[in-house]
């Protein structure tokens, strides 16, 4: 692990210690202030019961919501860590419901309301919650997807445990030790609270170890939950009666701990997967954009390759003139469109002393001269005309709808243009054939043009015949 990661770990651990210190100072200050300024001052039941009922109902609601979150989010991540906590909070939520209905002054719903029964439900619920969180330390980051087959059985077992606690506490309270009598809290109740505190402290140590190992932000909320719960239990160890300010402060701490646990479970099971999904969608969108760009470039490259292949099939790769096959295709198309009065011409040509150019300047210069000729011809000819290379320095020019006189003008223009741009200077000789007067078929017409070309050569070259 690099220095940067070690430094980051130290900063995060320092941040966690600061948060824990703030929670301890805040909760400790409230506990000390209550001890020295209120000294077990009792609150009227008309005031205490509505506050207590609302806090307990909120805790029950949060416990059930937390269970719902873990129940459905398990389907996505197979995390029986969260699922285990959710089942524990479900059981604790129902026990808290029995607890606040058992308070003195509440209507008799499950059984007769009394302080001992209310404290009994409280101790059982707090003990169960502490054990759940301590056990969850060993389940963190464990995934077991086959557990999904038994989810309903585990839920049924949890509800059966809740039903067992309700029946035994309601009908057979003597099975349990007395938690509160006329003199106040019993020693058993106080010992049970300290046992719960010990379990919670052990759970905090376990989660601190987990946080140091994984640096998972939601573990900070779990640690904060357990820390506040410890202060809540400290209040319940020192309360004078169920209606005093210490008891109320303990319930306020419980309220805060339930808010924190819900935030922790929501962050771990909902927020984090949702953010991961958003990040995955953004990454997928970026990958899709990259893929589309690659496809676009590949498509463009394929189109260009196809165009090059298509051009290679119809054009001479050196000069860009059409090839012999394309010349024949265009000649055939021209004849198909011809009318009885149509006159077409072809010009056969080759270079004068092309071998001398190659021998004197080299073949590379000879190739450039061939390109220069094609360029000169294309500059002076019409778009409908075509220059074809038949081989070496032999070319044929197709002039649709052009009589012999027009073809001669075109040939002279080419010669004139070459005189301007040819470097090194070179000349060409040309022979004209007119369709249909000099031949009705391509072969006949080309033969006549070749014969005219020979005449131009015989008459001194660099001319049009």
From TrEMBL:
Record bears the keyword Transmembrane: yes
Record key words, sorted: Coiled coil, Membrane, Transmembrane, Transmembrane helix
Entry superkingdom: Bacteria
Keyword check for Oxidoreductase: no
Transmembrane domains' residue ranges: 20-39, 51-74, 81-101, 121-140, 152-173, 193-210, 222-242, 248-267
Domain GGDEF span(s) in chain numbering: 342-465
Coiled coil region boundaries: 277-312
A single GO BP: negative regulation of bacterial-type flagellum-dependent cell motility
Gene3D superfamilies per the UniProt record, alphabetical: 3.30.70.270
GO cellular component: a single term: plasma membrane
SUPFAM superfamilies tied to this protein: Nucleotide cyclase
Gene Ontology MF term list: diguanylate cyclase activity
InterPro entries reported for this sequence: Diguanylate_Cyclase, GGDEF_dom, MASE3, Nucleotide_cyclase, Rev_trsase/Diguanyl_cyclase
NCBIfam families on file: GGDEF
Name of this protein: GGDEF domain-containing protein
